[in-house]
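Standup notes
- DV: blocked on the single-chain target, sequence here:
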Amino acid sequence: MTPLLEVEDLHVAVGGVSILRGVDLTVGAGEIHVLMGPNGSGKSTLANTLLGNPAYQVTGGSIRLNGQDVTDWAPDVRAKAGMFLAFQDPETIGGVPVLQFLRQAMSARKGMDLSVLEVRMSMLEWMDKLGMDPSFGDRHLNEGFSGGEKKRNEILQMALLDPELAVLDETDSGLDVDALGVVARGVQAVRDARPALGVLLVTHYTRILQDLRPDVVHVLISGRIVETGGAALADRLEEEGYEQWKR
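- DV (later): unblocked, structure below
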């Protein structure tokens, strides 16, 4: 069976500086993979590169989605093909209601013009599952949102856009324990509704993994994946840190 995501010998530079130095990674449909590593190891670089951020230059290797080479595809083309990125710090767009934003994004993903009613009904269904106030949809995108609201809005987008692969870049960053639990349960709710969804979760911490147990854990150090294992590897990192791989 063709893997959902295949990253092969990926080299990436930012501003002429080499950040990723030969990353190999395979994610199957329905799997949740966790990418961990210290600050500056290249985790967010990989997340941004997967979704085609033009600031990140691929200098070698390839990215394949369902067997198709997407290395040179534009971000919007990747999104339409089923790739989704939840940002570490989601952008605020004043004057654009969440409902309007979602309608445009969903229409682009599905390749058809969806009505406001269609989008609102789907949005309300998922807001109920995620424990969100229905009035949330009429607020301007991320304007005045708390950290937890921004992250929950990202999960709402992921649910409605129905991607094949979701890359969650430090979705747990800056959240308290309660908000972290809400986000983790939200991700799991989307996975329950979309069993084939593949997830790559980028994180510094193991707290979110108490509610969202991974199939595979990868350790990224200095632009290379130096260790891959099961959920127990995350527990080991919590106890021992990264020093053994920095030597």
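- Follow-up: The longest helix spans residues 177-193.
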